[in-house]
Design goal:
Layout (H helix, E strand, L loop, with lengths): L23 H11 L3 E2 L1 E6 L5 E6 L2 E6 L2 E5 L11 H9 L1 E6 L5 H7 L9 H5 L3 E2 L8 E2 L4 E13 L6 E13 L4 E2 L2 E2 L6 E4 L5 E4 L15
Antiparallel strand pairs: 1-13, 2-3, 2-6, 4-5, 5-10, 6-9, 7-8, 9-10, 11-12, 13-14
């Protein structure tokens, strides 16, 4: 009798991987499959000289609520150097995070290319700058939602290729497409979020794949 691999009452055989024995590339491949799906932070920044930059990052999460905060991690590049996004945030203390939804994925992928300094990801990927309110970096007009953020802290972990740089930002302004607001709440079934998986895989989160589940109430 065959066993259903999705039956959690069946004890599955497992493989073990010691991180001390893995290369950064091997660890990266595993981590991206185990921490998935991941929302994509499409980050807009401006250099100290006023040069705009736009790049996606899938190591991204909400942080806290009081004040509202977010964190994402632009890894050091293949040469062990800091990416333009991180250098810009270090210089200016500001960044805008744009939500990625269906229809944006191909152009967001183009913006992930490691262009030479001075090449505009906005122009290469075909995105439109839209005004912000409290900070300088533009938001992406094609994005249905965006957050204006000010830098709180950068926490580095490691000092070589692919090491982490946790950028913690305080959200100072939200932008939400008007039609998404229904009775004072965002209707998530209308967003069609694009999220990142392992390898070259992505996920489309829409009404067909979503479900509601109320949180249990405390008995105290």
């Amino acid at each position: 009798m065959s066993q259903n691999p999705h039956d959690r009452t069946v004890v599955q055989p497992y493989l073990g991987f010691d991180c001390a024995q893995l290369s950064p590339t091997e660890a990266y491949r595993l981590l991206n499959h185990l921490v998935a799906p991941r929302p994509i932070a499409f980050v807009s920044t401006i250099s100290a000289d006023g040069i705009p930059n736009l790049a996606p990052f899938s190591f991204f999460m909400a942080g806290g609520l009081n004040p509202p905060s977010v964190a994402f991690s632009p890894l050091t590049n293949r040469y062990g150097k800091l990416k333009d996004t991180l250098q810009n945030i270090q210089a200016t203390g500001e960044f805008t995070i744009n939500v990625v939804s269906a229809g944006m994925q191909e152009r967001v992928n183009i913006a992930s290319i490691d262009f030479e300094s001075g090449v505009s990801e906005w122009e290469q990927a075909g995105f439109t700058p839209a005004p912000t309110v409290k900070i300088r970096p533009s938001r992406v007009a094609e994005s249905l939602m965006a957050m204006e953020c000010r830098l709180y802290q950068i926490v580095s972990h490691g000092d070589e290729v692919n090491s982490a740089n946790y950028v913690i930002g305080e959200v100072v302004y939200f932008h939400v497409a008007q039609y998404l607001m229904v009775n004072g709440e965002i209707d998530p079934t209308q967003v069609n979020y694009i999220s990142r998986m392992g390898g070259n895989w992505y996920d489309l989160v829409n009404s067909d794949s979503m479900f509601e589940l109320s949180r249990p109430q405390s008995q105290r």
